[in-house]
Amino acid sequence: MKTILVTGGSGIIGRRLSEMLRENGYKVLWLSRERHLNGDYPRYRWNYHKQEIEKEALEQADFIIHLAGSNLGDDKWTRRKKQEIVESRVQTATLLLETVRNLTKKPEAFISASAIGFYGMYTSDKIFTEDDYPARNDFLSRTCKKWEAAARAFHEQLGIRTVLLRTAFVLSEKSEAFKKMQIPVTFGLAAPLGSGKQYMPWIHLDDLCRMYLKVIEDTTMHGVYNAVSPESVTNALFMKTMAKEMNRPFFFPKIPAFMLRLIMGEAAEMVLEGSRVSSKKIEDADFQFIYPTLSDAIRASLK
Fold this sequence. Notes:
Elements: E1 3-7, H1 12-23, E2 27-32, E3 43-47, E4 52-53, H2 55-60, E5 63-66, H3 79-101, E6 109-115, E7 127-128, H4 139-158, E8 161-167, E9 169-171, H5 176-186, E10 202-204, H6 205-217, E11 223-227, H7 235-245, H8 257-264, H9 269-272, E12 276-277, H10 280-284, H11 294-302
Parallel strand pairs: 1-2, 1-5, 2-3, 5-6, 6-8, 7-12, 8-11, 9-10
Antiparallel strand pairs: 3-4
């Protein structure tokens, strides 16, 4: 039985992924703020601020899945919040790297989350592939570059197979962001955000977790893959589809961009800008989507 060590296991992706891993015969361990070995998943303690980690967890790991990172959308991007967003991704990866460096047994692969924000908060008709450079050097793009560089060090310095999944907006009934989007729709106030013309790449949670499973089992996979669905939609079409699936009206008057910027600050650009992102590379690796269309994914997420 292979052992998978997961960071960020308590998030919606980590919890669902841990369930699927166990269902597929894997042993799952978490790195957490507190040690608790008798829970659903044994938790070992780490604290990247203090550079502390229980090596026992890494000594057991055949694979490391790195999902840890401060939530991008739960607050305005103040200087302190930005620092937390970066450090919670980069310093955690570096702590894992330095710990693994000194282990006799190395993991078979290091698999890290990333985000489509790598390509920049930018609206265009371009379809971004894994080989493209960012269209804008904004905060989210710079963060993803640092995040990915920290992950790539596992391959560059230790020769460990490394895979990064640049993740789109995740659809799930347990997603707080998706729940917030449902509120105005429930009251019959579905409307595009800003221009509504910005693209909104997305992926269903189960498809994302199945990608992680495939990366574990397919040793030919390495480098970067876009974790996005094949269907590209604008924000306006996303909101219209949600309204249809919830049997609510869809209004054309748009929610002004300035209102979102007042509420969210710089973070508003995450929802006001967006380009198409290609899923061809992951599909060429023989990955089959369960939810390739937005209608099916939203319907499943509303359950």
